[in-house]
Amino acid sequence: MVCAEASYGMAIIPAAHRHIDRSLRLLGDELFDYRGFLHSGDELVLRVALGALAAMQRPLEVVAVRECERCPLMEELELLPFTVAPSVDCAEISSECFAGMHNRLGRNLRRFRKLGFDLRSYRGDKAQLLHEIYARKAAQDPASLFHDSSRVEFIMQAAALSPQSCEIFTLECGPHLAAALVTWRDAGFRRLYTTWFDPAYGKLSPAMTLIYEVTRQSLAEGLNCDYMTGEQPYKLRLATGSMPLYRLKATSRALAALSEAIAV
Fold first, then answer.
1. At residue 261, does pLDDT exceed 80?
2. Please, what's the b/e burial string for 224-237 (b: 16 or more CB within 10 A of its CB; e: otherwise)?
3. In DSSP terms, which residues pair with 78 in a beta bridge?
4. Is 208 strand, coil or helix?
5. The Cα angle at residue 121 between residues 115 and 127, in degrees rounded to 5
6. Quick one: how far is CA 25 from the chain centroid?
7. Which of 24, 116, 135, 198 has fewest C-beta within 10 Å?
8. pLDDT at 147
9. Which helix (H) or strand (E) holds 196?
């Protein structure tokens, strides 16, 4: 962890050693879609903080940096296109227009309601519900990150720390879940973090139907929706735009050069 502070700004680099390849990464394991440096003020203080990492004699890799956080300093390092984060901007489309563009998903929601399913929402302090969602998600995918109980515990504790920021949406009928969606509120955004659905209801596209309705409601509330990392077809089907994401790489020599440039 590096903190640099001066009268003209402050920067924090939440770095960690990744033992598997002896690189430097940012804290958070694979649980964070977006990574970045905490920086306010003059870019010089960020340059100093990054330069301090050179002493570790390890390369730095950051996945993924958003276009909105890209800065001139990064151009001195290796900044490569990674993927995009699809989104729906409430300034570009109304909830009514969005619903009109996706009549089929609206029809699916009405069919779910005829089957007795309701759309419900919960705060992040519903620990048992979160645990159940991630257990079900792991059971469906041998490669899921959430086979690791420490990752599930992290999500549960993060949600408990700020339950008003974490919102859980479900399509449920009594004890039966057709789909679940874990989201996080961030300023004017609702960020859609985790989806799960029961394949038994696959003909009605439960996950897509839930994402559609949460997006429609978000637009009605004046919120943008961020579908997070990846160009999966279901995201692109609903999205009105996307944010470019980058992979930042830097050798220890490149990091040292950042601070050397200050002396010059």
1. no
2. bbbbbbeeeebbee
3. 249
4. helix
5. 115
6. 17
7. 116
8. 96
9. strand 189-197
